[in-house]
Amino acid sequence: MTSAKKKETKEPVFSARRTTAIFVVAFAILWLLGYQVFAAIRPQLAERYTNRGVEYLKTQNFPAAAREFRRAQELKSPDAERWLTLAESAPTDPRELDGFWRESHIDPVVRLLDESGGPFTSPKAAVTAAIRLYETGEPEYAQYALEKALEADPDYPEAWHYRYLTYEKLAAENAKYRKMAEEARQKRDQLTSLYLNP
User: Hey, CA dihedral for 54, 57, 61, 65, is it positive or negative?
Assistant: First the structure.
C-alpha cells in the first residue's frame, strides 16, 4: 500500500518585500550614523586642511595651498574663502599677504617687498630697481617699484614702458592684468614714440 505524502511547502521566513524594507531601513540608519560622525569631525578636518594650506603658503607653493583651502571650504570652514582668495592672488600680488609674510618670518619675500617698496631717492632709482626685479624674473615685485616711480613722476615714459611689460607678464597668471597692461601701453605711447613698433 502506497501512501502519497504531501510535500510540505514552507513559506520563506522573509519575503522579498520585507527583505528590501529591512535593507532600506538598515542603510538609512547607517547613513545617519555616518553623517553624525562626519558632522562631529568636520570642523577638525576643515582646520587640518586650513593649517596645511597655511604651511604651503609659507613655502610659496600657491597651487597646493589653494587646493587645501578649497578642501576646507567644502567642509564649510568659515576662514577658507578668505585664505583661498589670498592664495590665488599671492602669486601676482604678494603684497596682499604682507602681514602674513612678516609674521611668519618669510625673509626672502619680506626682503623683496622692502626692496620693491622703497624709499627711493628718485623716480629713476625706482625704475632701476623695477628693471632689476623684472629681469631677474620677479615681475610681481617690480610692479611696486614702478608704482613708486609713477607716484613721483606720472609722465615718466620708461616707467610706463616697464609697467606695460610687467603687467603683460603678470597677465599670463592673472587675467585682471590684461586691461592694466593695455592702459600702460597706451599711456607710454602717448608720452613717447620711442617704444612704438614699426
Answer: positive
| pLDDT tens readout for residues 68-78 | 999 999 988 88
Q: How far apart are alpha carbons 75 and 57 in whole angstroms?
A: 20
| pTM for this prediction | 0.74
Q: pLDDT band at residue 198, thresholds of 50, 70 and 90? A: very low
Which residues contact residue 192 at a Cβ distance below 8 angstroms, ignoring those fewer than 6 apart?
157
Number of residues assigned to the chain: 198
CB atoms within 10 A of CB 106: 19
Task: Centre a 10 Å sphere on the Cβ of residue 99 and count the other Cβ atoms it contains.
Answer: 9
Q: What is the pLDDT of residue 11?
A: 56
C-alpha span between 142 and 126 (Å, rounded): 9
Distances (CA, A) of 36 to 30, 39, 42, 77, 150: 10, 5, 10, 17, 58
Read off the C-alpha cell for 175: 587675467
Contacts of 10 (CB under 8 A, 6+ apart): none
For residue 138, the SS3 value is coil
User: What phi and psi, each to the nearest 5 degrees, are found at residue 102?
Assistant: -70, -45
Cell of 61: 607653493
- The Cα–Cα gap between 70 and 49 comes to 9
Q: How far apart are the first and last CA of the chain?
A: 121
Three-state DSSP class for residue 67: helix
